[in-house]
Fold this protein.
Amino acid sequence: MKNEHMYRKGTNLIYTCRQFFVFSLCFVICVLLSVFCCLSSADAKIYIDITDPGFRQIPLKINTEGSPDANEVKWIAKGDLEKTGMFSFVSPGVPGAEVVANINAEPSDKLKVVLTVTDLIENRELIKMRFVGAKSSFRLVAHRIADEIYRAMTGQKGIFRTKISYLVNVMPGRKELRMMDWDGYKPRKIVSRGLTPSQTWSRDGRSLMYSSERKRKWSIYRFDLDSYRESVIFSSKGLNLVGGTSPAGLVSFSSSKDGSSEIYILDPYRKKLKKLTRSYGIDVSPAFSPDGKKIAFVSDRGGSPQIYIMNSDGKGRPKRLTFEGNYNTSPAWSPDGRSIVYVGKTNGKNQIFVVKSDGTDLRQLTNVGSNEGPSFSPDGYFIAFDSDREGTRGIYIMRSNGETQKRITPKYVKAVSPEWSPYLK
Amino acid sequence: MVAVLKIVVNINLFLLREDSKLMKKTLVILLLILMVGCAKKYTKAPDVTVAPGGEVTEDTVTEEEFVEEIIVTREDDEIGESVISPEEEAKSVFKDVLFDFDEHNIRPDARPILDNVAAFLSKNKNFNVVIEGHCDERGTNEYNLALGEKRSKSAQSYLSSLGVQPSRMMVLTYGEEKSLCTEQDEACWQRNRRAHFVLVK
């Protein structure tokens, strides 16, 4: 049905536009769609509708066969799926599962795993896939398997292969940039020079932008994750703090190069700079909306730090978003652009709040300890943040409705300011 | 002996930057050990003693190289030499300027400190100063960095109104990234909400 509809839409376009490349584009889309439909016969059935708040957990059984690798892969994949809260796990040998995933690892010097997912009710095979990789890649393979199971059950792309970048307080005045798997494993040092207090991902997930103080100078750097090279993209006197990136590759940041801290947009490729705000007070933390058209930022122009939204072309007046409380900072957009998560001070403690981008439907998501630095997962289903609720500040993740808040970094590491990566290839 | 003096001066300079009490204590002990070592070299009966009541004890050295070195240790761990060097004087002059929560205006209690700083800088032209703005941990990191900068700039503009050339002052912010203490109480938060001076030559 879906396919047919798309095709009709495509043919209409040919006759109305009569442009050659519109035609070829539609043709490619149609071909891709039909290929996709042939490949996955399971697309018709959605087991879990994640948009429905009262969805039912799917009873899932994960069996393993073959070498011990299978078990290792199973535990990682199970941990991934468990965090979504969408599955209940049925132990092997116990009846009641509706779907069974079978992980079969061949005894080999490489990691060779076959995944089959079967619908036990309809007695239908949903997936059969084979993964081959080095032994060291078992985490990646496991996350990939979790992604495939998740897609078969929900029809949505899983976030299990995404990363979270974050900052670690090594000592007072030293903060380094690290990166880890979304479940907190495989931490990796990216930049340890100087003091790095703010950072963000490029939209293609291939680089990290961050601000660093080195030798009493604040500059904005870019770290290429493919070549592992660092380069300076902006440097001036004063404080320069990176905020976010747009789909077109622009970088938003705050700078006090001309005196007070204002919001700027930088085109790092054309080396063009545009100043967006002019106010006496503090303007910081500019975050691009997912479509790049808006910027949410923090300003104390009204007497206390509050979140405002403005057009990224600088036209029109910024609109104030937050009115509750007198200390609201650190805005981050949801991937659909409809909500903004931020830090608000209430009863002397920082808490995570979420509000629709039109200012309605304000909700408090945390209430234990002091909680800061929220960032949405690329599917909008999770929020990463930092909290001191168990002593040392660490990185936590929760569902975007505030459920199941769980620490993912070790107790002894002082980790803050998580930034969730986009989907990674 | 000259080398020892150099070390003493260096350590004093270092003390200007570091506020850690523990560090001070260890350094005082280190200095004393050095002194005792030196005294042994030149006199048989060293008179160097620690006078907890704040009394000054003299150490007379009568060998070829006469260097007057007196160590005074008080309850508050201050170290002094009999001739007050600018570095030594700076220690009592460059006190932290404190601020209210989410504020960057100069409080009345900060004015005498800034007046002394201005007087020192106009007397000692060979010294410049870095003004670091700091915040307590209750704010959020990025906003605090901007606020810290506002604090250091407030101190800078106050000093320049007293005649200190702006080019002799460098403003820098560390937000909440260099806390002096981590207790969750107002006393500690107040210590951290500060403009801190670092003397540079």
Helices of chain A lie at 2-17, 20-39, 69-84, 138-154.
